[in-house]
Amino acid sequence: MSGSAVSPDILAEPAKEAEPHLILVDGSGYIFRAFHALPPMTRPDGVPVNAVFGFTNMLGQFLTKHAGTHMAVVFDASRSTFRNQIYDQYKAHRPEAPPELVPQFALIREATAAFGVASVELDQYEADDLIAAYACAFAANGGQVTIVSSDKDLMQLVRPGIQLLDPIKQKPIREAEVFEKFGVTPDKVIDVQALAGDSTDNVPGVPGIGIKTAAQLINEYGDLEGLLTAAEQIKQPKRREALIANAELARISKKLVTLDCDTPVPQPIDALLARPPEPGRLAGFLREQGFRSLLHRMGLDGDATPDTAPTSRPRFVPQLPESAPGTTTEITPAADEAAFGPYETVVSAEALAPFIAAAREAGAMGLDTETDALDALRANLVGISLAVGPGRACYIPLRHGPLPGNGDMLQEAPAAPPQMSQDEAVALLKPLLEDPSVMKVLHNAKYDLEVLGRPEHGGILVSPVDDTMLISYSMDAGRHGHGMDELSLRHLGHKPISFDEVTGTGRARIPFTQVALDKATAYAAEDADVTLRLWHALKPRLRPNQALALYEQVERRMVGVLREMELAGIKVDGAELARIGEDFSGRMVVLEKEAQDLAGRPFNVGSPKQLGEILFDEMKLPGGKRGKAGAWGTDAAVLEDLASRGHELPRKVLDWRQLAKLKSTYVEALSAQIDPRDRRVHTDFAMAITSTGRLSSSEPNLQNIPIRSEEGARIRRAFIAEPGHVLLAADYSQIELRLLAHLADVPSLREAFEKGEDIHSRTASDIFGLAPDKVDKEARRRAKTVNFGIIYGMSSFGLASRLGIPAAEARAIIDAYFSRYPGILEEMERLKSEAREKGYVMTPFGRKLWIDGIQAKEQARRGNAERAAINAPFQGGAAEIIKRAMVRMPLALREAGLSARMLLQVHDELLFEVPDSEIEATSEVVRQVMESVAELRVPLKAEIGHGPNWGVAH
Asked: Region entry Disordered: which residue ranges (predicted)?
C-alpha cells in the first residue's frame, strides 16, 4: 500500500444518510490512562511522548469500531473553574500533573486534529460541563449522543437519546447501569452525590452518609430539598444531626456536582461534523513523534522511512483492565506469551551491548541482583540480571567461583568460570541504570538499591524505579503475600525456579557463587523476566483500583527514605548493653529460685512441659488444657489468667520469661548486630508484610521493645547519639483515638481534642456521669482501657479481664460508652458490614485493607476477622499518616538548611539524630510536617523530646 492512502478498515465512516449521532470523548480519561499504562518514552529531542503514543493508539482503535455524524474530544482547559468560586476547596488537594506529562497535552491536541476530530475546551469550565451542554442540545434536537467515558459524574446525563460507553469494556451505560451504580434513576444522581460527597474531588457532602444511605433517603424523600426539609423527622439521631448541621454543605455539594447544560459552547454543532483524516497530515504527525508501529498498523508507512524515532518505545499495545468497585482483576497470561527462557549468560562487553541497547529502546527493563547474603549492607554482589522484554533476559555473573571439587587433593584446583569483572560491568551498566528515560523495574527494590549503591559496588544510584512488590501491596494489603514467586503464580500462571532447586538444601546446600552458570542464569534471569512481566500486568491496575496515588506518592517514595535510614543506622552503647545483660541474668536467677520455692521443688523454669506438670498435676490449679501431644498448655494467656486469680507462681514465670526474651531478643541480639565499622545497628524495614500498611523491622527488630516497662526503658537508653548530637523523638499523640473521633465523627471527643483536654478524663466524665473535677485515677484508667479496647473490638469479657471486674459490670460500661457515643457503634457496624460485602475496609486515605476470614463459617475465625475489620482503618490510617510525614521530612529538613538525620520509625514515633545547635529548629520543622500531613476533623499533635539517648528522648 502506498503511503498516501489510509487502510479502509482503519477509520469507519458514517453512512451519508445516517441518523444524527454525536460522539463525545472524555479526553482526560484517555490521557491519564495512557500516561500511567506506558513506560517512559521520549523523542530524540527529549520531549516525553508515552501519553501521546497511548492516546493516539486508543483514539485510532476507537475510530475503527465506532462512527458518528458528529464527533469531538473534550478537554479540561485549566485546573481552576467556576466551582472554585463556589467552594474554594474543590479539587484543592489534587496533585499537579507530573512534569513529564505537561508537555504532552499540546501534542495530544495535535493528535486529535491529525485524526480529523474536533477538540473542544473552554477556560473556567470543566470538560464535563461542555459534554453536558453539547449532549443536551444535540439530544433536544432529536439526535443520539454517545459519551465515551465511565466517569460516574457524567451518569446524571443519561436519558433517552444520551448514553455513556465504557471505553475499556466497550459496554453501554444506560439507566439500568446507573441505577445499579447509584440506586436511583439518573435524574436523582446529583442528589445522591450531594449527600455522599466525593473525596476525590473534595466535594464535602454530609459526613457519615455514603452512596447506599443517600440513595435510600432520596428514594424516600424525593430529592435533596425534600430530605433537608424533613430532616427533623429522621429517626436515627446521628443521621438527623448530620443532615441538620450540614444542610448548607449538602446544597453547596449539589451545585458542585451538577453539570451545566447551559454552559456556553466554544464551537457550533456543525463544527463537530465527523470527517476522515487527511492521510498526509496523520502520517506526518506519526512520523514526527516516531510512532513507526502505528504508521504501519494504519497503512501509512508505505516505502517511506521515518525521519525521527523515539529513543524508547513500548513493546506492547496497552490493554488496561478495569475492575468493578471493591474488586481487583486477576491477570491471565496471553496464549502467545513468550516462554520463560532459555536466557543468555553474558560474560563480555560485546554480549552485554545488545541488552543495553534494547533496554533503552524499550524504555523499561527488569532488574535484579544476586548476592551472597541477606544483609544488603554487607552482602557481596555476585551477579546482575536484566530483562528487556518477555522471555528476553540475561544474567551477568561477576563473582562465581569454581564448581565444588570431588575431594581429590592431587587434582589441580579448578578455575573460575569465564565472567566479566565487576568494574567492567559497572562501567557499562551505570549509565543505563542511572538514565532517567529508562524505567528500572525491581521486586523489593530497597534491597537491590542498597546493594548497588554501595561504593564497593560502583555507587550506582538507580533511577527511576518501579517496585512490583509495592505495586501489589498498594492494592492488595492483607489479601495475599507479595513475594515474587507468589505473585508470579497468581498473575502469570508461572512457578519460578526456587533457590533450593539451584543451591540444594540442608547440609548439601552450596553457595550461589558455586552454582553452575547455566543453572544460575536460568534462576537469576528468570527473576528479572518475571519482575518485568509482573510490572506489565500489575501497573495498569493501580488507577482502576484507586491505588495509584498511594503507590506513587507514598509507597514508592518510601523506598528512598527507608534506604537512607537503614544506611544511617543508630549508635548503640555496647558497654551499657553488657551491663543490662548482667543485671537481667542476675534477676532471672532470683526469679527462678523464687519460682522453685513456690513449686516446692527444683524445675526448669524455661520448660513448658515441666511447668505444666507442676501447675496442673501437682498444684491442681484450675483451667488447665492439654494440647494434641498431651502436654499442658502454659502460654502467656494461660499464665496471665492464673496470675489474675492470685496465683504467685505463674506471675514469677511470666516475669522470668519477659526478662529472658528481652535478654535474648535485644541485649544479646543487639550486641551481635553492632557493625564494628561504625558501632551502629542497621535494622531492615520490611515494607509489605503487615495487612494494615505498617512497617515492620528485623535484624534487629526494634518494633517490640516494651514501651512502658522499666526494662524496655533501660534498653532504649543503650541507643545513643554521636558526640555533639542528641536523639530527638517525635511521637504522634493518641493518633488512633483521633482517627476514631474523625471516622465516627464524635462531637464531644472532637471537642476534647480541639481544646487539648485529657481525652481519657473526658471519656470518664462522659460515660460515668462525673463532673470533670471528680474524675479520679481509677475512673480515668477504666475509660482509657475502654477507649483503646474499642479500637480493637474488645468484648465485655475482655474488658472484664483487663479491669478485673465482673462481666456484667464491664457490659454496663460498654453500653454506657456506646450510649454516649452512638457514632462509634455505628462506625463499627459499618466497618463490619463493609468487610462482609466487599472483602476489605478502607483507611481514611483510600488504602484497601483486605480482611481474611470475614466470610468464614467458624464463629471464632469470623469474630477475629470482624475485630480486624474494626481495627484496620485505625492502624492503617495511623500508618498512612506517619508514612506521609516520612516522605515529606527529608525535603523539609533540607529546605530549612538542617542536617538532622531520620534514623528510626517505631509505630507512631520517629527518631532523629540532631546536632546540638539545631535542636529547636529541627523540632519546629518536625512538628510542622507531622501535624500538617493530613486534614482530620480533629487536630494532629506530635509530642517531641530529646536527649543523649533514646530512653531520655522518648
From this structure: 302-329
